[in-house]
Amino acid sequence: MKLYYSPGACSLSPHIALQEAGLAFTPVLVSTKSHKLQDGSDFYEINPLGYVPVLELDDGSRLREGPAIVQYIADQAPHKNLAPANGTLGRYRLQEWLNFISTELHKGFSPLFNPATPDAYKTIARDKLLQRMQWMDSQLEGKEWLLGEHFSVADGYLFTVCNWGRLVAVDLSGLQHLQAYLARVGARPGVQAALKAEGLLK
């Protein structure tokens, strides 16, 4: 398998999932500015939408969209408990979290990374994100992981997105349950391996 990624982008989530699953893969660096690979080839030929992540399977087929990719990865290593079994309520809970993180948090950060976004709108976007993060903080009270006793691919995704806060002045420091949770996720060997591989951890 190949994972097309850009350091610290949302592709960190499947990178964490692959490390946690213990699956063999080749990371392929993509420039989000030039949309080129390191060999100079055009990333648009891999993904016409131009963004990461993309997971290329051994048969050459490709999966786009992080929530789909991480569930595929989890299903390749069911003994790692990165996702509840298909058809169970637990699996739908996982999908519930993946959808929330994707639509309410991930996309909420997008205008803050866009230099063309007016400052007035950035203020609105930050306020909305902080409200969602405060709700997340309340959901983590008394819980080790989002789904309970097992670390899941949703935890890797939430960790990835929350790390963007410091880059765009979304202050999460006052959210004690979220901060403790992020420290737990960040201490996992699989997460540390992904961060180091992307040059995000010395």
UniProtKB/TrEMBL annotation:
* Domain GST C-terminal residue range list: 87-202
Annotated Gene Ontology MF terms?
transferase activity
Q: Which Pfam families match?
A: GST_C, GST_N_2
Q: Which domain of life is it from?
A: Bacteria
Do you know which InterPro entries this protein is assigned to?
Glutathione-S-Trfase_C-like (IPR010987), Glutathione-S-Trfase_C_sf (IPR036282), Glutathione_S-Trfase (IPR040079), Glutathione_S-Trfase_N (IPR004045), GST_C (IPR004046), Thioredoxin-like_sf (IPR036249)
User: Which CDD domains does the annotation name?
Assistant: GST_C_Beta, GST_N_Beta
**Listed PROSITE patterns:** GST_CTER (PS50405), GST_NTER (PS50404)
* Keyword Metal-binding among UniProt keywords: no
Occurrences of domain GST N-terminal (ranges): 1-81
Q: Does the keyword Transferase apply?
A: yes
| NCBIfam families, per database record | PRK10542.1
Q: What is this protein called?
A: Glutathione S-transferase
- The record lists the organism as Paracidovorax wautersii
